Amino acid sequence: MAAASTEKLPSGVVVEHLVQGTGAQPAATDVVKVNYRGTLANGTEFDASAKHGGPATFPLNRVIPCWTQGVQTMKVGGKAKLTCPAATAYGSRAVGTIPPNSDLTFEVELIDIVK
């Protein structure tokens, strides 16, 4: 297995590829199936797909910009850690237990691209 590689996108999103996938790479218009876990900067978990009964499926262009940009760099079967500056997450809005202007971290496993 190749060592983890990290890339910083123009928006400031940092994608740390933990496991390189070998499948297709999604486009922004694709619907993806993922396992994920989201944490605040202090490590507090605010959401996880496991809390909702398993993998989540959603259109990649209907989520926060960090996800739209970061997941497009992944391939099916891959796992990555997305570090999302507040501007690419929820910005100045408080969402659930997430305070305004929060930098967020997501661990994402790209299971499939739903056709």
Automatic annotation (TrEMBL):
Assigned keywords, A-Z: Isomerase, Rotamase
UniProt-listed PROSITE patterns: FKBP_PPIASE
Catalytic activity: [protein]-peptidylproline (omega=180) = [protein]-peptidylproline (omega=0)
GO MF annotations, alphabetized: peptidyl-prolyl cis-trans isomerase activity
EC class of the enzyme, as a word: isomerase
Domain PPIase FKBP-type: 29-114
InterPro entries, sorted: PPIase_dom_sf, PPIase_FKBP_dom
Pfam families referenced in this protein's UniProt entry, alphabetically: FKBP_C (PF00254)
Keyword Electron transport assigned: no
Top-rank taxon, per record: Bacteria
Enzyme Commission identifier(s): 5.2.1.8
Function: PPIases accelerate the folding of proteins.
Family membership noted in the UniProt record: Belongs to the FKBP-type PPIase family.
Protein name (Swiss-Prot/TrEMBL): Peptidyl-prolyl cis-trans isomerase
Organism the protein comes from: Paraburkholderia phenoliruptrix
